[in-house]
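Page 47, continued from p. 46.
Same chain as before, 381 aa.
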Amino acid sequence: MKQTAQIIPSYTGDTSGVCSALYELGGLIVMHDAAGCNATYSAFDEPRWYTQESLVFVSGLTEMEAVLGDDQRLIEDTVAAAQKFQPAFIALVGSPIPTVTAVDFPAIAREIEQLTKIPTMGFNATGMASYVSGAGMAFEGLAKKFVLPQVPKTQAVTVNILGVTPLDFSINGADQALKAVLQAQGLTVQSSWAMGETLSNIKQAAGAKVNLVVSATGLAAAKVLAQKFEIPYVVGLPYGPAMAQQLAAMLIQTSQDHQNRIFCQAVPASDTVIIGESVAALSLAKALAATTDFKATVLCPVDTFPELLTAGCIKARDEAELKPYLQQATTIIADPLYQPICPPKARFIPLPQEAFSGRIYRQAIPELVKGFTTFRRNFGL
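Result:
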């Protein structure tokens, strides 16, 4: 019964991940689905839905269209919507049904781009992978299609922040805190992908000297920017003043020697675990170890990259894989919805994540970039 969740919910899917990454950039986003994925996204996965407008549509895929493979209505409806709204770009996003019928989204995207003369991307999301995969595809698509070459660089150490979505950072000000912390260390933020950002700024991303990857969703884009524009990257988050200084120093060094670096490397411990997205959880483990000698092993239940699966980070996708580690733990830091599968004897420290528990604990999601010390003290760490 592996890959079956008896108690805990699933993470946000890749379809919603694409939409979350592109939400604020002025595009027309079309989920190709009967309607269920759009309802899930708007009700549970997108905290900006009621406060910030975005052109997110669903195609209304019918049973006959799915069976017969008729893509013409999707093309015609998308073209009509594009002509009406004149978006900056168009994004077509897959879901479970078109995955089964093998819809070729990149091919349809090329046809729509020819008809509308509007840049169009097609993403083969399946609805079966996590939001990390979907948002990663979206950021990678932006890096390949929109970033302009030959953007002049300044004397300042300029940084692109890659991988900022509310699925990892919620809407508690973490996106602005990231910019403020880097600026306080003497760095200049070129662009932030993609909360609180515009497509025009992202197009100028090649002017940066280094990329900061703050979640696994941004690593694929970082690799594209490294290959196309020779911009090196650092992976990690600045939790707390000491980590901010160390990370800034690493960013400056990386901008000079062009060696990609992983900042978020944790020292593992057998009796303490943190469950969450790899970059955020590893950064938290590193910050706790540096300030309190509190060592922890990270259990990553969502998609990530091999280079992040160090000794301190273990891939554990489902309840069957998680439970052996949890049974040995004396302290567990995780979203509150994990508590039912944790042993009663273990100390449980809640750390909600939007991509797992949605809006249930949104008001309790801490902003850890500037608020790390408060979080640590609140739980006696």
